Amino acid sequence: MASALSYVSKFKSFLILFGTPILLLPLVILMPAKFVRCGYIIILMAVYWCTEVIPLAVTSLMPVLLFPLFKIMDSKQVCVQYMKDTNMLFLGGLIVAVAVERWNLHKRIALRTLLWVGAKPSQLMLGFMGVTAFVSMWISNTATTAMMVPIVEAVLQQMEATSINTEASPGALELVDKGKTGELSGSQVIPEGPAMGQQEIFKRKSVCKALTLCVCYAASIGGTATLTGTGPNLVLLGQMQELFPDSKDIVNFASWFGFAFPNMLIMLLLAWMWLQYTFMGFNFKMSWSCRLEKRNDEKAAYEVLREEYRKLGPFSFAEINVLLCFLLLVSLWFLRDPGFMPGWTSIVWVDGKKKYVSDATVAIFVVILLFIVPSQKPKFNFCSQTEEERKVPFYPPALLNWKTTQEKVPWGIVLLLGGGFALAKGCEVSGLSEWVGKQMEPLHTVSPTTITLILSLLVAAFTECTSNVATTTLFLPIFASMSRSIGLNPLYVMIPCTLSASFAFMLPVATPPNAIVFSYGHLKVSDMMKTGLMMNIIGIACVFLSVNTWGRAMFDLDHFPDWANATHIKT
Length: 571
Prior knowledge:
The protein is mainly alpha-helical. Helix content is about 65%, strand content about 0%. It has helices at about 1-10, 10-30, 35-50, 55-60, 60-70, 75-80, 85-100, 105-115, 120-135, 140-165, 180, 185-190, 200-220, 230-245, 255-280, 285-290, 295-310, 315-335, 360-370, 385-390, 400-410, 410-430, 430-440, 450-460, 470-485, 490-500, 510-520, 525-545, 550-555, and strands spanning about 350, 355. Residues about 165-195 and about 565-570 have low confidence and may be disordered.
């Protein structure tokens, strides 16, 4: 039996890759309808996405091959789905994030905030979570975690060194590279000498677990607050534009932020309380008392943060320009169509019902600026320049160059989004969406709140095993069809399920931030499972609360909207 299992494990990828299409083939042969052929392709891609037998981005390109071959859509119709308005918005956000990372603006913001928060473990954890969530709103969750965990590790090591009375200089500690720190185990960071009691050892280990776990959780939570913060949010935007073209830009940067940001704050606070209770005990007096005398390990933590901030030096010309470009981007996004007053697009760029400018237009405008705005002050002292200075071009290098951008942008996610939009269009054209909707008509007897809660739990469980973008790509068109068939506002189901796709808290492999944190050796899988299960419950409860309170008012979720009456198929 054992040998049979080992052979199956050895050929697992081969069997899934070639066995799945063969096993599903009778479905197409017995029922050669157009919507069945589309269903065959979707199931095949779902299996490949979940098992990752080939890269996710490569699986996303399959509609370009299979939709024309199965006579679902012609090649021109399919290919145009891969570079829609939403893809350009996402790409613009990614390139702005590259500029922020290149000039270390995110690190400066993080360290400055942590110095302000305080050095007690509970305060540090709240500071790390707040900073990580804020940075994750604008740059990728993975990049945010990769930046923050070495800072956490340096603080932990210095606190430990001080607590066991070593003679290490607090300011001399360098941030450890991720690859090197990942080789350390938890026992190397926390020596178990005879002088340290078992209770103190347990306490130190618990602090390490709390401060590392809080980073990956905050990165996932923070990404939900903005439309460009994480992939599932953009999948929702794209699916709304594709499936409900008359939805009148109801989901845009400003409306999503107004809904999701308060939800993110509530969830972040509850997550901090849960981690505090689980690993440190919840003693408000000890955590927040204003003692004049600080403990040695608190001083050590503060010194590490101050030293790292000092190494960044004064604000550079490049950092100031990146910050100005970033603030311009956010301002233009918010003021384009704020909802409570006419936006700046109404001045020239609205013609009746047609809006010429979208959030993607703003993103690309700022991206172009990043390739123009100089990274150094131009020198105007032509008369007093040396021979060497005269050879240097007058206009300094821009904030970004294409080589850096090409290396840093995760192009695979752009293809993944495009593949999702192609699938949604295929469901429309083939009639699969209509067929799925009819099968779900009996659900009209179930209360909308129950449906939302069950589907959110389903998505949260599914996203532990597969990519959050792939999860939303697969489920949102189905949920949209179901909502239309039972007369429920599609956003009432699609919004909570989109947010639930970001709640991958339980497994190290569920999301890259989890994997990065786990690689540092402080955590066991059981630690992540126990805390992550409660985090999933907290997340779903927060989303359920927000959708049924201010979400109802913002998106008029109590009424079935006119834009959801029929799916418009443009040929």
